[in-house]
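Q: My labmate handed me this sequence with no annotations at all. I'd like to see what the chain might look like in three dimensions before we decide whether it's worth expressing. Could you predict it?
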Amino acid sequence: MKVLVTGATGLIGGSLVRRLGSEHELICVCRREPPSELQDAAEWIRADLSMPIDRRSFPKAIDGIVHLAQSDRYRDFPQGSEDLFAVNVASTNDLLEYGRNAGARAFVLASTGGCYEPRPEPVDEGAPLRPPGPYFRSKRMAELLLENYADLFGGAILRLFFVYGPGPAERLVPRLAQKIVRGEEVVIEGDPGMRLNPIFADDASAAIAAALALERQEVVNVAGPEVVTITELVNRLARALGRPASVRHTDARAGDLVADTTRMNDRLGIAATTTLDRGLAAVAGSIGATSAPRTGGDR
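A: Here is what I predict for the chain of 299 residues:
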């Protein structure tokens, strides 16, 4: 299968390239130099998705598209709104039209579970949506674009829940890890805080690979099997780091956001295999901290 992947140098993208590179012909779009360990796994096209794509540099024919790229300025509103819209929304439209003309059979879009309205019970794919800010609304806009092409492509809209792994510090788990390592206070809304079921990047990439085989477009939640509160997540991460965690709880409490993964298990045939403790140990190891707890490290 000939597959074009955007966002291939990111946490999920790198895992996907390693997973698919030996069995499929990959064409990866990136705006920065790919890591040396991934260079031979794919053909790389340098392109900035904040600008209209130049289809002349893309293959004339393609079997599938995986759109993982997202704007680096997702927290910078309104100053970064043009980049946010261009990368998260406009490039989706460009890629859909490219795929239609290039004969693609499947289109997989990485969206987010943050589009759902928080609630105490697990959210399935039919649960109410309430994207809370510009980033989440841009993801929902991209979903709507793909819904227009549902009769033309197989694949899926994948709503990813708290993907983590060794990688960028702006993601939830690495960000918490950096705070613990630096001895900074971790502020949690409520006690014990929201409930969530995070998924390790390698398990998320397995779901993406499986979604390429779907013959009809579907919406699928992608999340892990273990439900934890933010407080429990911080404490288990602190144990993996071998450092004490300084935690302060506020009176406010964010709503729970736990994914129902029935469709992921049934339609994609995927069940996350990385335990939370093993995944947190990988994050700890990536920032140079010991995985063996020290005195006080379980606080």
